[in-house]
Amino acid sequence: MSDQPIKRKKRGRPKKDEQTKREQIYQIQLESFEKDHDFIENKKRMLSTFVLITNKLDEETLSNQEVLRVYKGQSAAETRFRLIKDSQMIDAIYLKTPERVEALGIVYVMALLIYGILEYRVRKELKEKNLSLILKGKRKLYQPTGQALLEQLEDITVILINQNRQKLRLLPDNIDSQAKKIIELCGYDVSIYVSKNVENKGE
């Protein structure tokens, strides 16, 4: 403990009869200390623990490790559903009946499933064949997102011709090479844009 004067807040010299205010300052001085290793380890365990609740109480049916794996897998599903929560996707859609709302929800989920399959197949093939894609913006990607793949596929143009009361669908000769590569990585070829019967070459 030490007794020290308090610094004056007023400017100028102090008055002759002005008393100096003082304050007592306490300081802690550690002589010696050592770590409490048991306390530290217990604190680490507490901080690295979180609670998961399930109604599957039989560990033979669902082990603790499986519960944790399923929990951690939620992020993938939540990331996918974030796409259809975008205000641009739902802001201007008006449906009159609950049945139509339900039907639209099913369509969205199916589209999301196809989106995920597209991304998974392309990434899998790129990894196995040690390839990359050069997508829009001259970006070299080894794990492209589904959105980046769809943006590249938008460059594929289908020519529609009405001839003798029949509609012909044709593809131009200058198809974007990277878009074509994406289709092939999925196990198809660009003829799926004009063919009625589609066959997966990867199966």
TrEMBL record:
<feature type="region of interest" description="Disordered">
    <location>
        <begin position="1"/>
        <end position="22"/>
    </location>
</feature>
<keyword id="KW-0812">Transmembrane</keyword>
<keyword id="KW-1133">Transmembrane helix</keyword>
<keyword id="KW-0472">Membrane</keyword>
<dbReference type="InterPro" id="IPR047654">
    <property type="entry name" value="IS1634_transpos"/>
</dbReference>
<protein>
    <submittedName>
        <fullName>Transposase family protein</fullName>
    </submittedName>
</protein>
<dbReference type="InterPro" id="IPR012337">
    <property type="entry name" value="RNaseH-like_sf"/>
</dbReference>
<feature type="transmembrane region" description="Helical">
    <location>
        <begin position="103"/>
        <end position="122"/>
    </location>
</feature>
